[in-house]
Amino acid sequence: MKRERNWSVLLGAAFLMATSAVGPGFLTQTTVFTQTLAASFGFVILISILLDIGVQLNVWRVIAVSEKRAQDIANLVLPGLGVLISILIVIGGLTFNIGNVGGAGLGFNALFGVSSEVGAIIAAAIAIVIFLVKEAGKLMDRFTQILGFLMIVLMIYVAFTSSPPVGEAVVKTFAPDKIDIIAIVTLVGGTVGGYITFAGGHRLLDAGIKGKDALPSITRSAVSGIGLASLIRIFLFLAALGVVSQGLTLDPDNPPASVFQLAAGNVGYKLFGIVMASAAITSVIGAAYTSVTFIRSFHKGIVKYENWVIIGFIVVSTLIFISIGKPVKLLILAGALNGLILPLTLGTILVAAYKKNIIGDYKHPLWLTIFGGFVVVVMAAMGGYTLINQLPQLFS
Fold it and tell me: What separation, in Å, do the N-terminal and C-terminal C-alpha atoms of the chain show?
């Protein structure tokens, strides 16, 4: 029974991380970059997957061995650092959650014709119901698994109907015509940046799966999370590539919707509604849950009323969306911010991996340290480059 429970939690953590990554921004970015890079976007996806795995394995293993949340680890590395990271994570999580709620509104608009504001309220209500349940963790695991599987099946169907040039995609994945640094930063930041990389790690800690003995299972769960998110991205890439390669033009106001519609007609448009709503709701759940785990250490009342704090986070996100609409400029800034938060959080984790007062007698694999250090340097450089290039657009 315990083995089955652990397997369910490990799978749930993988899906929580994956579905936290697969939100409205994920769908839009993948479609837009496919339109601009065509088959060469496959190379960006490949590089991002490798970097994502390096980040995820380092973070999840140190969290598990230390049996502490990321902010507590950071405070042990340098007093006050955990507070700074928590503030950055919560600001980024709230900003993205506003976009997630808005994306859910678009999904329900495509499905039922309701306004995006009404759709956002429906999505928020669904997410809130999950945290009103006594066994919220188990329900969250099962809910993200079901919607995650649904998204994968629908993505495969749309990719098949768009008839993409698979051979060209494979060739360009290893020999691209163009390499886009901003695209790589955006994908890595959107998959394991900000709060996302900690979603599954904190979920496993809350479920009691921790310690050195659990490392093999945790490693599989971490890689599975990246694999699931990447699988969805690959099939969306192929679907968009099939449409673009036919010379069809995507709607700049809603690129993902036009991919589904051009690939599979009106049925495709309804499928887009299902995928967008599913992606957005699971991202709302992941962002709210993980952001609140970063402030649990600040006050005992947050631990006692954690689910109510999560619900409040969702309500605030929804109210902001309804009040000001989709904050496109905020989302651009948050995307760049994620690229900068990642080197800070991963760098902190790598330092913690060699402090005995945090990890005891655990020996962190040298290859993971080297890989993680490489990711820190590369993402810091590329994140700075992206921020400098996007700031003029942000305030223009």
Answer: 58
The structural domains of the chain, with segments of one domain joined by +, span 2-394
Residue 37 predicted with pLDDT over 90: yes
Calculate the dihedral angle through the C-alpha atoms of 362, 366, 367, 370, rounding to the nearest 10 degrees.
120
Answer whether 300's CB lies under 8 Å from 291's CB: no
Q: Which of 262, 44, 293 is nearest to 169 (CA)?
A: 44
The identity of residue 14, as a single letter, is A
What mean pLDDT is reported for the chain? 85
Contact predicate 387/336, CB 8 Å: yes
98 closest CA partner among 351, 311, 275, 331: 331
Separation CA 211–CA 359 (nearest Å)? 10
CA atoms within 13 A on the CB side of 364: 28
| Strand, coil or helix: 175 | coil
C-alpha distances in angstroms, 265 versus 5, 22, 155, 241, 318? 42, 23, 15, 16, 31
Kindly report, residue by residue over 130-176, the tens digit of the pLDDT. 888 877 778 887 888 888 888 888 889 998 999 999 999 999 999 99
Structure-block tokens of residue 377 = 């340097």
Residue with tokens 């962190």: 364
The DSSP call for residue 326 is -
- CATH number of the domain at 2-394, out of 3.40.50.2000, 3.90.1150.10, 1.20.1740.10, 3.40.190.10? 1.20.1740.10
How far, in whole angstroms, is CA 311 from its chain's centroid? 20
**Residue 114, pLDDT score:** 86
**What pLDDT is recorded for position 1?**
45
Angle (CA) 317-126-92 rounded to 5° is 30
